[in-house]
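User: Some background: our group keeps a shared notebook of sequences we're curious about, and every so often someone picks one and asks for a predicted structure to add to the entry. Today it's my turn. The entry only has the sequence so far, pasted here. Could you supply the structure so I can complete it?
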Amino acid sequence: MHQMGDGTGADPCAGCGGRREFLREAAATAAALLVSLGAGRAQAQGMALRAIQALSARADEATYALPAADGVSIDREREVIVARWHRRVYAFALSCPHQHTMLRWQEHEGRFQCPKHHSRYTPDGTFISGRATRGMDRYAVRRTGNALVVDLDHLHKQTDDRAAWDAAFVAV
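Assistant: Of course. Here's the predicted structure to add to the notebook entry:
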């Protein structure tokens, strides 16, 4: 069993519906991201969600294969979404910046929504409405050859440093 950082050994998914529920919600989230970035709903729903693992990881960064095509991948262990769309690759935190609940994709609205307090976001992470006060958090990223390096120590908050938040992508 994966042991949580608190040393309890508690299952991080206990009570959250298990693997199938996580994968269903992650696929919906990926579809929402694609729709908000300009894909039609049918196109976004047709995009496969990929579960990924880092090629290498340290406490402060994780390295992933640079996506070869548009799509969304999720590293569940590190709670990172890697998205490639329209020649840009982003890395997002999987949780709502308000109270860190896993975000869900609302297909009928074409946006992300926090199930706890109903904060809503466009697929690029821009805040729309709700209790949150900023957009979804983006990790600093850089390209090294055919790899994407995600700096896990530098999570950009839209309201703290808008320029860094806006620049948190890699062109491909």
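Suggested note for the entry: The chain has a mean pLDDT of 75. Residues 45 and 72 are 11 Å apart (CA to CA).
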